[in-house]
Each structure stands twice: as structure tokens, then as C-alpha cells.
Design a protein that fits this description.
This protein is α+β, with helices and mostly antiparallel strands. The protein has one domain. The strands form 2 sheets. It has a 3-stranded antiparallel sheet. The chain has a two-stranded antiparallel sheet with strand order 3-4. A hairpin with a 6-residue loop joins β1 and β2.
């Protein structure tokens, strides 16, 4: 391979990296199309979960991670449990910056964003979109996340439906907060990495 060919390859890698970075950041920006904003919220929440899954995978170590390649138990997949896992991890590595205030903030925000995301993830259909951009409201029907099935008697059973609404402002807030959660997770990951390196150096 000539120097010119090597330079072209590096340029292509750099171009692809920049494009990927642009697309990942775009996920957290609301669209003028409310349907696309809902999809972006799904992507943003997935980005947060995958970041924490990777953090957990790496922290398990090479031998531990081999037994659990795709962590998918409750502390990872349920938003309200993310706080507990990260707090335990911060405590284990003595990351003082993950103080009570950060822990409570993460739990509150993750719970709120996760609840809105989960509602759309279980959406059956859109009933209406009212108003004008950027203050529209979407009303949709979903199956309740718990206790949706029941028997009326020995013959008939039923599945409940639930009507929910969300405003574009709530969607915009959720995207912004999800980006903040991702940023906080990455900061914690860096600080844990430093603590891990320091621990290795003292052995």
C-alpha cells in the first residue's frame, strides 16, 4: 500500500467517523415531524441503555463478561433500576462525584424519560394530533404496562386499553434529558476507568 492509498483510507475512516458522530448527535435533536421525534426518543433511550450495557460488560472483566455477553436483566433494561446499578458501581470504585444529589437526579430523570419512552414503545395506534408546530399534542392508545389482562368470568377475558397524550414540549424535554443522562453516564465511566487504572497500578 502506498502512502497516498494509506492517506485515502485514513481520510475515509475519518469521514465515516464524523458522519456517525453527526447522526448520533442528531438523535437528540427534535424534528419538525412529531412522528420522527417519537422515533428519535426511542433511539436516544436505546443509546443510553447500550452505553450502560457496555459499561457493565467492561466492568465484569474479560472472564466475567464471557459469561454474560448481552446483559439484559432488570437493572439494565428497566429505567427506574438504572440508578441503583450506577450507584452501586460508583460506590464500588469510590467515585465521590456520584454523590447523593447526582444519584437522585439520575433516578428522577431516567424514571420520567423512561416512562414516556415506554408508553410510545407500547403504542397501538395514534388517535389524533392536534395543534400547530411546535406546540402540537399527540393522543395515542396503548396497552397498560401492567395488569392489562383479566378474566370477566369463566368464559370471557379482556385486555385493557389506555389513552395517553404527550406534547411536543414533553418530547423535546425528554430528548434533552436523555442526552444529559448519557453525558453523565460517560463521565462516570471515565472516572471509573481512572479509578480502575489507579487500582491496577498499586498492585
Amino acid at each position: 500500500m502506498t502512502d497516498a492509498e494509506s492517506s485515502l483510507d485514513l481520510d475515509e475512516v475519518s469521514r465515516r467517523f464524523d458522519e456517525q458522530d453527526r447522526l448520533e448527535k442528531e438523535v437528540f435533536r427534535p424534528s419538525s415531524c412529531i412522528h420522527e421525534t417519537i422515533l428519535r426518543l426511542q433511539c436516544a433511550w436505546s443509546a443510553l441503555l447500550e452505553e450502560i450495557k457496555h459499561l457493565r460488560y467492561h466492568d465484569l472483566g474479560r472472564e466475567g463478561a464471557a459469561e454474560q455477553r448481552r446483559p439484559n436483566d432488570a437493572p439494565i433494561t428497566k429505567g427506574h433500576e438504572l440508578r441503583k446499578y450506577l450507584a452501586q458501581l460508583a460506590k464500588r470504585w469510590n467515585v465521590d462525584s456520584w454523590a447523593k444529589e447526582a444519584d437522585e437526579w439520575f433516578g428522577t430523570v431516567a424514571g420520567r424519560v423512561g416512562e414516556l419512552r415506554n408508553s410510545f414503545a407500547h403504542m397501538l395506534y395514534i388517535e389524533s394530533i392536534t395543534g400547530e408546530w411546535p406546540t402540537r399534542e399527540i393522543t395515542f392508545v396503548m396497552v397498560p404496562l401492567s395488569e392489562s389482562l383479566s378474566f370477566r368470568d369463566d368464559v370471557w377475558s379482556q385486555q385493557l386499553r389506555e389513552r395517553k397524550s404527550a406534547t411536543e414540549q414533553e418530547l423535546r424535554d425528554a430528548l434533552a434529558e436523555c442526552e444529559q443522562l448519557l453525558h453523565a453516564t460517560r463521565i462516570l465511566d471515565r472516572e471509573i476507568s481512572i479509578a480502575r487504572e489507579n487500582a491496577s497500578g498499586t498492585r
